[in-house]
Amino acid sequence: MNRRLQKLSEWMKENEVHVSLLSSPENVFYLSGFNCEPHERVLALAVFRDEEPFLVCPAMEIEDAKRSGWSGEIIGYSDIDRPWEMIKNAIGARGLAVGKAAVEKEHMNVERFEILSQLFPEVNFISAEEKMRVLRMIKDEKELSKIRKACELADFAIETGVQEIKEGKTELEIVAAVEYALKIKGVTEMSFATTVLTGANAASPHGTPGMAKVQKGDFVLFDLGVVVDGYCSDITRTVAFGEISEKQREIYETVLRAQLAAVAASKPGATAAEIDLTARTIIAEAGYGQFFPHRLGHGLGISVHEYPSLTETNPLLLEQGMVFTIEPGIYVPGVAGVRIEDNLVITADGAEILTTFPKELQIVK
Ligand code: GLY
Ligand code: MN
Ligand code: MN
Questions:
Q1: Which residues line ligand 1 (CB under 6 A)?
Q2: What is the pTM of this model?
Q3: Among 227, 289, 308, 329, which residue has the fewest nearby CB atoms (within 10 Å)?
Q4: Where in the numbering of this chain does the Creatinase N-terminal domain appear (predicted)?
């Protein structure tokens, strides 16, 4: 049993949980090393307190599961099998009585939960999610090296995107050029749909790129991330195309000041709320508080959004090994949007910034 599985088993002992059934690809990957996208099919890892765990996957994925390094039992099922019944039988074959089981309630849909409830009518189901979030929140060196590579590629992608800015190019043309350059470098997956937004479009924090053309006097906002060996990066940079107005400049400088202050405040022992409020106060005092409608940042790793959540009310103490984004923004509807986003890891006495593309206002000629 690896160290991560041992930690889960210890939690199960403390909480008298007989079996944990992990079913999200992210948590199965974290615990088993097998990174699988099963689509609508069942993927599950059954973890016990003292028995060896077993993996359940579509039969066609068995060879990939073995190649991933998983050396435990694998139960493969075909498209005409009933995987949950097979899980019940495999637990029964171990002679284990189950009174309490932990499942991923947020990931599990109602249909699956009904099947499980019928198969295990006497069982009390509790949530495994919170424990898994806490386990995943502190990254080890192997995870950090993957995230570092993902951040280096994210920096390269921003550099490529900025070089692609030309009068009349559409947002989607720039997206295509960025992703083409990454594919040539061997990148297979983005953390989320690459975002390039220009002008007033950038005032939508999660806007979708389209056929809008970049024009002089506008900001161009890039938000993108790269997946390396299952780990994500997530960077945002905003640059000016040609000369911009004093108002645009003031918005940019306010976001930058807020971002730099929050980065500087990130260290072990600070709370998530303090970091958020460091940036939020600067933006509010500049008169833009109402135009910063989201939390300061989020953890990232296997998922692009995971723990910790940097909100203005989260009392969580930052600890060495936590990886998260700091991404304040100001979005003035119909006018402009600016966001600056870095990825950081908390170190023994501060924070290391993993994304390094320059943040001073860049004016693309
Ligand atoms: N790209 C989504 C985010 O920055 O959270
Ligand atoms: Mn982002
Ligand atoms: Mn983000």
A1: 192, 223, 234, 327, 341
A2: 0.96
A3: 289
A4: 4-138
